[in-house]
Amino acid sequence: MTSRTAAALLTATVLLLGASGCGSDDATESGSSSSPSSDTSAGESTDGVEATEETSAPAPASADPVLVDDPGTPDATLTLDDVGFDLEGASIPVGGIVRFTSTDGGPHGIVVGTLSSVTVMGGLDEWYRFDEPGSYVVSDEITGATATVVVE
């Protein structure tokens, strides 16, 4: 949810800066371009947010991922600790693998889609393969934290 808010704020800032840039081309006074650029929140919204005009999230996935044995190198890793996930989510290709791991020793109860929870704790990682495009919400039953895996 916060990534949507940040993306919307970034889009609004880009539009505002674009409009102020158009005004400064027509005006010869430097005062006309300085008043719109006093927005200090622009730098706050750009960390880690892609500059795209599309702010809608992918549709929820129509199928659950598949729990797999250690497949080797994953496409993404989401790490849990006592306060939740280290990232808000991950973006992977169709058929991609996400590894769930714990840095605090766990245990964490990971729920993906409608699947039953699996335990992730120190030394016990779990991997899911995501075969269908869409947006998958992942939650931790212990901390209540959530993350989103986007499959494109």
TrEMBL record:
Residues 21-46, 54-63 have a biased composition (Low complexity). Residues 21-80 are annotated as: Disordered. InterPro entries: Cupredoxin. This is Unannotated protein. It comes from freshwater metagenome.
